[in-house]
## 1
Amino acid sequence: MAVYARGYRTYDGDFRGPPVAWTIFREGVAQALRRKGFRWILNITAFILLATAGMIYIQVIVEKQAQRLTGGMVRAQLMELDQIIHGFHATTMFLVSLGAVLVGSGLVADDLRTRALSLFLVRPIRPVDYMLGKALVLPALLIPLALLPGLVLWLLVGLWQPPGETWTFLQEHSDIAWNVTRFYLVGAAQLTGLLLLLSSRTPRRGLVIGLSAAILFGGPVLRAIGRLVLGPIGTLLKSLDLPNNMLWSFTRDRREWQFEGQGGGGRWGGTTGEERWLQWQPDPTVIYIVCFVLLAAGLYFTWRRARSVEVDA
Amino acid sequence: MSIVSIQNLTKAYGSRPPALRDVSLEIEPGVTGLLGPNGAGKSTLLQCVLGLLPDFDGEVRVLGLDARRQRREVRRRVGFMPETDTYLYEMTGIRAVRLLGQLTGMPRNEALRRAHELLHHVGLGEAVYRDVKEYSTGMRQRFKLAQAMVHDPELVFLDEPLAGLDPKARDELLKLIKDLAVEHGKHVIWSSHILPDVQKVADSVVVLHHGRFRGRFHLEDLAPRVGRFHIEAEGDLEHFESALEAGGVTVIGADEGEGPETGGGTLVEARRGWTVDVAGDDAARKLFAIARESGVRVRSLGQVAEDLEDIFLRILRDPESD
């Protein structure tokens, strides 16, 4: 019998579906992937990743040829892999921020604007389910933008080592994998916290986009001011450049290449350069505190939104 | 046994005067109209019962469950069609209803099947793959009914379900709701201020006004109350009105009336109409007798069927119910 001819039928199935938080998370991810803008960002990132991998491969080939000609050991010496990954992240940071704003701005604001909360909250949903479901969307979407590319490059270079040396290479450079993971975790915590915080405060998505873009892209200005201000306020201002926090989390253990270039002079010129460089960077502990505070605030206000449909203006 | 039991429910929004004040009422199985003028507290009452507004004073039980402590179990067994224009952003009808079914705990495939069935049942079969945002007002009302029924609840709360619909769409949706109640035994609590619609479906009504419970009425009690008449008379009307009251006739309302006046040298006597309740089988004879004794001439006399609006207005007017 055709479905339209059946009339109303009782439901005698079960109610043992997946956890509600998972359903909300999954729908959030699916909705983001349906957005053309976000798909473009994924494609551009993939293109930059392919280009970077191609350049590394060419470097491997050239080095192998050179070593063969000189009779040396055939082994790709890619000591600058972390710099390459840093360059990749610095290049794609704009895309990461843009993607986060594009997807994260509507996480709660869309539900507020369309009053969908009154449809959600009459279901057997706890506020914590809603909060978790929404909070996991952005970290999941940042995986292909901020976590996988670095790990893929690290693995590829490992695979391009001479036979039998792949595992040794990966072990020797395991700190790169950890730094990439830290880059991702700091980014996911900051961006999720910021966007949940803003998105749960207003139903106007445009306002959320504007504010979050101003915070993300105005970060260098805050950092510049923070460099001039002494004490905790300066430290705090420097740590409010969220994209820089991510990059700094990636490089801070291997910062020697930031100012020790060829011949020890480097970009900033010796010890003075190092001091100047560090003046621009926030304290790593403060970065973690900023991550925690942003994430906690974002989660709290999202949870509070899911407690009641009462307007708390 | 009542399906909803409310004891001393008080709800205030911030520092404003309470939207609900010490409301106590029992709602019986079947279709119940929750009536009241705009701002009476109907939507607030529904939202408290559903746990959408958790911060209230008093005790609410739904289907025997504590609405505050067993909120999730209550929500699994009830459906809600909100009054506000609501939809899920950038989602087709089928996707939205499926998602809302899943959020009730239904497995994905079951929820999808139910979503198809329900959307076809409410007449949105041709629009299941269209974005809900593109739906017309009538389609959105149907969509809201479909999502309320996707998990096959025992009790469904409808908040102004026919608001903004044209007469044809009203009739169609009314038929659907009636079908759910009569054919499928669903309990319905219908909040509305459009009384004729409620009268067509409801078994009983509960009246709220200014955040207070003002009374209850069973619609089956409308049938025996046939002694309502509209009488139009001319002559000494003041004497007639007092004679009506002295004769045991309840005056429900009076028309504005006209006259007395002179025109073209002729005296036109005062003329006025009253709506009255008269007890007994010989009501018409009694009215004629009072008119004769009062010296007025009856110009017209007709029976008036009482409707929900009369009951509603009487409950609102009755100072006893405050």
## 2
Amino acid sequence: MEIDYRLEWPLRIEARLTVAGFTVLAGASGEGKTSLLKAIAGLLPAEGEPWGGLPPQRRPVGYLPQGFGLFPHLRAWENVAFALPERGRRRESALALMARLGIAGLAERFPAALSGGQQQRVALARALGRAPELLLLDEPTSALDPATRDVVFGELVEEIRRIGLPTLAVTHDVHLAGMADRMALMAGRQIVQEGTPREVFAAPVDGRAARLLGYRNLLNGVIETIVGGCATVAIEGVRLRASAPAWGRKGQRVGIAIRSEDVALGSSDAEPEGCNALVLRLVEVREEGLSLRVAAHGSIALDILLPRSSPTDGVAAGMPATALLRPEHVHLFRVAE
Amino acid sequence: MSAGTSLAGGGSAGSRVRGGFPVASSVGLAVLLFLIAPFAALAFATGWRQFHFISGDFAAVFVSVFYSLVALPIIALFGTPLAWWLARGTLRWKWLIEAAVLLPLLTPPLALGILLASLYGPYGPVGVPLEKVGLLLTNTAPAFVLAQIYGAMPYYVITARAAFESVPRELEDIGLTLGKERWQVFLAVSLPMARLGVAAGLALAWVRALGEFGIVLIIAYFPHGIPVKLWVNLEDSGLSTVYPLLWLFFLVALPLPLWLGIASRRRGIF
């Protein structure tokens, strides 16, 4: 499904993206992601397709806001029955919907007596009662218990896939996109990149996208040579080998994005074939959960995340070290010339 | 997980801390005593040995209760849309409308009665045409109800408006996205969620309508309702005839607000 929406109020937003299967739209807070969802649901004035100009009650959309928006004065089954036709066996239909999502046992409870994950399922069942063509989820993990969030949400995504309902979930947590069939990035109140999570994570189109995707090392350089599929990029006197992008040409200014966890520390004599090796000095080393976060300075500065599986002998502030970086982990992106 | 337990336990009164507010509770108790002191005095002042009603007392009770029961649905029917409009409407001159709603409350009741007399009275610009179609708004049943509406409606509108404002707009939006029309969302979401405040507004309007004296005195001295009859008893027959009627007044006035309070809390989930 193609979504193409333009808002003027409360924020000026332009968004054109494809929703296929479970699609995640990631962007920093304040980008207007919630406003975009509300506009698609018809709750904010906007121009766009599909359903442009229709009032919310005429749009075949299931909208789950942050916190899920259950009606606190209605029991779970009454919430689910809300969108069902007034006549007929509403209770039976609601219970059938709830059974489909494995929550029939919660029918008589009020929302206040449900956990975040249970509320989410009741809200999903309620939205399904509307027979929507598109499901809209606003920050679907924000009201879930952090300890079980990924599991609970992962199961919900599987459920939605089984139902086969196109879904657009917006989040500031790009990590969620890992579970998606497709993802898009929003920056500067427009969509800057979309594709499968693998495509997008591997090749951010610009610095904003790279930052959103969790790249901490963003540098500027110039392509010196392109030989075969390999480009050599000069960055402040340092040369790095990188996979050459199709658009790359000699002499072109480019942005360089490197993930902290893609940098390893080693000695240059053990350098694998073709690997970039940079001699740096470790400036700061601190624990980050089970990993070590290392700041290393030299001709360029790098932020490095060492997993606990990597050797940590000699990793201390003030020590010299060789940073190893495979060319396919050096991502080039276009910058304004 | 503390969030989980507070979510699960939030609905039951048992999870709330009892006592533990020594300053608030002692001040509260003192204020409560201050407020009920006159009614304790009533118990002592009543001449229980000569407790009796005089002619017209029961008629006054009927007039007050019956016409208040007529006024209350009218107040609810027309006051609710106004309250909703004030709560949800996006109007440039909203403060002016709010002031207009407050105006009947601000005006001394006697003065409001005089204003009503000059508008709806036999020489008033509205009174004259209405009289031609047979509706006389001085010293008649309709005049009595009219006075009660003016006295009580602003209380209902202000209370109900606050109640509607407290309903999260998002839940009303959700109702729309679930395919319901605005009026259906109002009946299924807004009204039930605002029911505590709306019920309080109705209770307030009821006691105001029953107790209305100043406005009634001017435009509906007849038929005598309880407040006017209390005045008449005092003037004509003395204090001993006031107290029995006052007891009767409490007896008929209190059940409805008490019932509204209990009924609106019955589903104790908030």
